[in-house]
Design a protein that fits this description.
globular, disordered N terminus, alpha/beta, 8 helices, two-stranded antiparallel ribbon
Length: about 210
C-alpha cells in the first residue's frame, strides 16, 4: 500500500471509529441529537481505501415488523420505504443478514420450522411489487423456542451471538427497548426510522465494523 493510500485509509478508519461511537451513543435514551450518523462519510476517499475497509466479517440482524416490513390495517404486508434497496446493497457488498423476531413458539420445534411458518405467513399477506428477500437470510432466522425467549428477553440475541463465528454483530430495529438490549450484549445497535438520520445504518459503517473483526 503506497503512502497516500495508507494515509487515506487511516483517515477513513478513524472516521469509522468515531461513527461507531456515535451510533452506540444513539441507542441510549436521551442521547444528544449530534450522535446521528452523517449522511456521507466516504466522500473524497479513494475507492482502494474503501475496498480495504470492506474486508472482514459482519452479520446484520434485523427485527422484521415495522423495521423491514409494514403490515397495513387491512392485513396486507410490504416493504417499508428503502428496505428493499438497503437489503440489496448489503447483498451486493456480501454482508450477511439475519432476522431476530418474535413468532409463536407453537409454529415449530426448530428455528427452521418456525422460519418456514413465518415465510408462509408473510408471503400470504404480501402485496409488495418486489418479493421479500428470504434467500438473503439463509438459516439466520432466530425465533423463540418458548414464551420465555420472546424479545425483549436476551435469549435470541445470545443465540445469534453464539453462532457468529467471531463476526461483528449489528442489530437494527424500530424500538429503543430492543436496540438497548442488543447493545448491552455487544451488538452495534441502531434504531431505525428516526428523524434527521438515515433510515438504516449506512452500509459503509458496517463495512468498517467488519474490517475491525480481523
Amino acid at each position: 500500500m503506497n503512502r497516500s493510500l495508507l494515509r487515506s485509509f487511516r483517515g477513513l478508519f478513524r472516521t469509522g471509529l468515531a461513527l461507531l461511537g456515535a451510533v452506540a451513543l444513539s441507542t441510549v435514551p436521551g442521547a444528544a441529537a449530534s450522535a446521528a450518523v452523517p449522511a456521507d462519510v466516504s466522500h473524497g476517499v479513494p475507492s482502494g481505501a474503501r475496498a480495504e475497509a470492506a474486508r472482514g466479517c459482519a452479520v446484520v440482524y434485523f427485527d422484521l415488523g415495522e423495521t423491514l416490513v409494514h403490515t397495513a390495517e387491512d392485513g396486507s404486508t410490504s416493504y417499508l420505504p428503502g428496505a428493499a434497496a438497503y437489503l440489496r446493497e448489503l447483498r451486493q457488498r456480501h454482508i450477511e443478514v439475519g432476522l431476530i423476531t418474535n413468532v409463536p413458539p407453537s409454529w415449530g420445534a426448530t428455528d427452521a420450522e418456525r422460519a418456514a411458518a413465518l415465510k408462509r405467513e408473510v408471503d400470504g399477506a404480501w402485496t409488495g411489487s418486489v418479493p421479500f428477500a428470504w434467500k438473503d437470510f439463509g438459516d439466520r432466522i432466530r425465533t423463540p423456542r418458548t414464551e420465555a425467549e420472546r424479545k425483549p428477553a436476551p435469549a435470541l440475541w445470545e443465540r445469534a451471538k453464539g453462532q457468529a463465528n467471531g463476526c461483528r454483530l449489528v442489530y437494527e430495529a424500530e424500538t429503543a427497548e430492543e436496540t438497548g438490549v442488543a447493545a448491552s450484549l455487544g451488538y452495534l445497535a441502531y434504531q431505525t426510522g428516526q428523524p434527521s438520520r438515515p433510515a438504516y445504518l449506512p452500509v459503509r459503517v458496517i463495512e468498517m465494523l467488519a474490517h475491525r473483526s480481523r
